[in-house]
TrEMBL record:
<dbReference type="GO" id="GO:0051301">
    <property type="term" value="P:cell division"/>
</dbReference>
<dbReference type="InterPro" id="IPR001460">
    <property type="entry name" value="PCN-bd_Tpept"/>
</dbReference>
<protein>
    <submittedName>
        <fullName>Cell division protein FtsI/penicillin-binding protein 2</fullName>
    </submittedName>
</protein>
<dbReference type="InterPro" id="IPR012338">
    <property type="entry name" value="Beta-lactam/transpept-like"/>
</dbReference>
<feature type="domain" description="Penicillin-binding protein transpeptidase">
    <location>
        <begin position="227"/>
        <end position="529"/>
    </location>
</feature>
<dbReference type="GO" id="GO:0005886">
    <property type="term" value="C:plasma membrane"/>
</dbReference>
<dbReference type="GO" id="GO:0071555">
    <property type="term" value="P:cell wall organization"/>
</dbReference>
<feature type="transmembrane region" description="Helical">
    <location>
        <begin position="9"/>
        <end position="28"/>
    </location>
</feature>
<keyword id="KW-0131">Cell cycle</keyword>
<dbReference type="InterPro" id="IPR036138">
    <property type="entry name" value="PBP_dimer_sf"/>
</dbReference>
<dbReference type="GO" id="GO:0071972">
    <property type="term" value="F:peptidoglycan L,D-transpeptidase activity"/>
</dbReference>
<keyword id="KW-0132">Cell division</keyword>
<dbReference type="Pfam" id="PF00905">
    <property type="entry name" value="Transpeptidase"/>
</dbReference>
<dbReference type="InterPro" id="IPR050515">
    <property type="entry name" value="Beta-lactam/transpept"/>
</dbReference>
<dbReference type="GO" id="GO:0008658">
    <property type="term" value="F:penicillin binding"/>
</dbReference>
<keyword id="KW-1133">Transmembrane helix</keyword>
<keyword id="KW-0812">Transmembrane</keyword>
């Protein structure tokens, strides 16, 4: 009898434990994990169609985006949710301005959904199975820095290409449609919703300043320039603006594939003969190596013969007896060829390389590094071409701005950079990108003299850069690189800095086949400098 009672008690205890376990399990499933399992149940009855693959954005230094700035509205239709396809086709045809028969054909196809760009807004209620969505556009009609940002598609260019793996997040936006229990038909009454995958989207933070970039591009477009402009932060080496013209449409790359107008060429990092802006390097070498002092004088007759090769000043103008400062201000070729002969080609080439010509600075976009002649090519008349920035001497507008920035920064070169970090969508830096170390190019004393000489170019009554003067005080050097003497064609240059007393921005202007530097490039420098100083 006792054993029987024991068995009954044991069974009751076991049943009680099982009941409590079952109650707890039900409580856990329905209360604690209720939302989770409800979501899973719903997801089993949802079918998704990918409509957009999210790509990381490219930002300026203040996290203002250059990409995905504009949205376009699209109309979507899910054929299996439509009860009256003829009516739906008519609605879509009116909104999207497309042929009604073509729409109806698409709606009767086996497509999961059809998509059209909205052309006309309608206040009428859309039938179940049709809805509108605003989707981001990678590039807009007013997008900036196109030669830097580049484009993505079958082919890639610029930062879009360099950082493609980082920007290509594979985050997807999808249309979610509810299905029946057998997952074979859509439940029309529940409509649709948007789903976004949880993958992280990373972007690229550049050194560019959106507002300065816009000011530069507006000036180039206003003056119909074929060329380039670069703005550098003197204290950091950051590239604040880089623009090239002619421009191109990032949404219509095919239109330029057979063009000969150089739309895809980023002239800001392409090399061209610098002409007289190279006299900055000649003067720096002459002063730094103590080959010429400011009291030395030279006689300019308007031309100079070296071994039967005659070099002329602009329009054969004679400047008489002048020193290096005056020769720099009026851009006297005769004087600077003589200074080049005294200084020596070896010293000049060494100085040019210290300024960064022929150096790969590791920018994340294709960049030409400039070119200098071999020492053997500078013998005889070769020193004449070297001294006035002609012949085998080639530089980029970025390098021209870099030279001006180095002088304005008291002789210390901050190696230009274009990208600072990989960031998340909140702007948090995920990875900082290193910058090459700064280094001294010339002494502070030499830099001070050169700054004064560049100021004279702008304020001297006979100075070639008078049109570059601003209300803030400018300094710089003009250049007119001879392209065709017979046709009187020159590349126009101006490189300098502003303000003169407390330099902040270095700006270089290059106008291809644009007449003289003082006529075309200097006024453009002034226009850009005046505008960006407002910031």
């Amino acid at each position: 009898m006792e054993n029987r009672n024991y068995r009954i008690v044991f069974l009751r205890v076991v049943l009680s434990i099982l009941t409590l376990t079952l109650i707890f399990r039900l409580f856990y499933i329905q209360v604690i994990k209720g939302d989770f399992y409800s979501q899973k149940a719903v997801e089993q009855k949802i079918r998704s169609f990918k409509i957009l693959e999210r790509r990381g954005e490219i930002y300026d230094r203040n996290m203002i985006p250059f990409t995905d700035r504009e949205y376009k509205e699209y109309i979507f239709a899910i054929p299996k949710m439509l009860t009256d396809k003829e009516k739906a086709a008519k609605v879509i045809s009116e909104i999207a301005a497309v042929n009604c028969e073509d729409v109806l054909k698409s709606l009767k196809s086996a497509k999961d959904y059809v998509e059209y760009e909205v052309k006309f807004n309608s206040n009428n209620k859309l039938p179940i199975g049709i809805f509108k969505l605003a989707l981001p556009q990678r590039y807009s009609q007013n997008s900036l820095a196109r030669h830097v940002i580049g484009y993505v598609g079958e082919k890639k260019m610029g930062l879009e290409d360099t950082f493609n793996e980082i920007l290509n997040s594979k985050r997807e936006d999808s249309i979610a449609v509810f299905t029946d229990g057998n997952n074979t038909d859509y439940i029309k009454g529940l409509g649709v919703r948007l789903k976004t995958s949880g993958k992280e989207v990373l972007g690229v933070k550049t050194t560019l300043d959106y507002h300065i970039q816009k000011a530069v591009e507006d000036a180039l477009d206003k003056n119909m320039v074929d060329g380039a402009a670069v703005v550098l932060d003197i204290k950091t080496g950051d590239i604040l603006a880089m623009a090239s013209r002619p421009n191109f449409d990032q949404n219509n790359i095919q239109a330029y594939l057979n063009s000969s107008n150089e739309e895809f060429i980023n002239k800001a990092v392409s090399m061209y003969p610098p002409g007289s802006i190279f006299k900055i390097v000649i003067a720096a070498a002459a002063l730094e190596y103590n080959k010429v002092n400011l009291q030395d004088t030279f006689y300019c007759s308007g031309s100079y013969d070296i071994n039967g090769i005659v070099f002329h000043d602009y329009k054969g103008e004679s400047h008489g007896v002048i020193n290096m400062v005056k020769g720099f201000a009026v851009s006297c070729n005769t004087t600077f060829i003589k200074i080049g002969q005294i200084t020596g080609a070896k010293n000049i080439l060494e100085m040019a390389r210290k300024f960064g010509i022929e150096s790969d600075d590791g920018l994340p976009i294709p960049e030409q590094i400039g070119r200098l002649p071999k020492l053997s090519d500078t013998y005889g008349a070769g020193i004449g071409n070297l001294s006035i920035g002609q012949g085998d001497v080639l530089m980029t507008p970025l390098q021209a701005a870099d030279i001006a920035a180095t002088i304005a920064n008291n002789g210390v070169r901050n190696v230009p950079r274009l990208v600072t970090a990989i960031v998340d969508e909140e702007g948090k830096e995920i990875e900082k990108l290193s910058q090459k170390k700064s280094y001294r190019v010339i002494s502070e004393k030499t830099a001070k003299i050169l700054k004064g000489m560049m100021r004279e170019v702008v304020i001297d009554q006979e100075g070639t850069g008078k049109r570059a003067e601003t209300t803030y005080g400018s300094a710089g050097k003009t250049g007119s690189a001879e392209v065709s003497k017979e046709l009187n064609i020159y590349h126009a240059w101006f490189t300098g800095f502003v303000p003169f007393d407390k330099p902040k921005y270095a700006i270089s202007i290059f106008v291809k086949n644009g007449d003289t530097g003082g006529t075309k490039a200097a006024p453009l420098f002034k226009e850009i400098a005046e505008e960006i100083m407002k910031y």
